[in-house]
Amino acid sequence: MALLGDGVNIAYEGGSPADWIELTDLLDLPMPPAPVADKLETTVHGTDGYKTYGLGLRDVPDITATFQFEAGGSSATAHLAMIAALEAQTELTWLIEVPSNTAKTLFINWQFTGYVNKADISTPINGWQTMTLGIMYSGSYAFTSTPAATKIT
Fold first, then answer.
1. Can the peptide bond before residue 17 be classed as cis, meaning omega within 30 degrees of 0?
2. What is the pLDDT along the chain (153 residues), one digit of tens a residue?
3. What is the structure's pLDDT at 9?
4. For 3-129, where are the E strands, in sequence order?
5. Which end of the chain has fewer surrounding CB within 10 Å, N or C?
6. Can you give the residue range of the structural domain that contains 35?
7. CATH of the domain at 123
8. DSSP code at position 135
9. Res 5: pLDDT
10. pLDDT at position 3, please?
C-alpha cells in the first residue's frame, strides 16, 4: 500500500550500538524538529530610532506524526512500544530521515533524545485506524545536512 510521507523514515534506538527500530506506515509528519531561536532585543539608546535584535537560545518544537495502525499488523509491535514508552516515561533516542534525492536513497537526518508525550490510537472507521504520536525534545540534538544512506537497516 502506498502511504504518504514519501520516503520519510522515523525510528527510535533499540539498543547499543545503534539498532534503529523503524516506525512504519507513516501517514504524516508535518515538519522535522527544526529549532527556532528566541528573538532578543539588543537596542541601546542613541541608535538610529530602530530596535535591534540578536538571536537567543533555540527551542526545538514538539513533533507530531500520524501512522496507520493495524492491531495485528507487522508494525503493531513498534507502535504499541510507543504507548509503553509514554506510560513508563522512557527517554528515547530518535532518528528522522528525509530523502534528498528522487530515488530516495540519500537522506538528511535529525537525531535527538526525547519523550513520547502522546500515543493515541483512534477508533476504527471503515477498517482504518491511526496512531498519533507526539515526541517532546529532551536533549542531544544533531542535524546532518550532508546526504547519506539510511542509518535504518
1. yes
2. 344 457 899 999 987 777 899 999 999 998 888 888 999 999 888 768 888 899 999 999 999 999 999 878 778 899 999 999 999 999 999 999 999 999 999 999 999 999 999 999 998 888 889 999 999 999 899 999 999 999 998
3. 94
4. 9-13, 20-22, 26-28, 36-41, 53-59, 63-68, 91-99, 107-121
5. N
6. 9-148
7. 4.10.410
8. E
9. 56
10. 42
Domain-located, residue 80: yes
In a domain, 1, yes or no: no
Going by C-alpha positions, the residue among 14, 11, 123, 23 that lies closest to residue 66 is 23
Please check whether residue 99 is in contact with residue 149, taking contact to mean a CB–CB distance below 8 angstroms: no
When divided into structural domains, the chain yields a total of: 1
Q: Determine, yes or no, domain membership for 153.
A: no
The residue count of the chain comes to: 153
Helix, strand counts (H, E) of the chain:
1, 9
- Among candidate residues 1, 19, 25, the one with its CA nearest the CA of residue 9: 25
67 membership: H or E segment, kind and range: strand 63-68
Grid coordinates 539498532 are at which residue? 19
Cβ of 66: how many Cβ atoms within 10 Å?
19
Residue of 31, 129, 131 whose CA lies nearest to 78: 131
Residues 79, 129: Cα–Cα separation, whole Å? 12
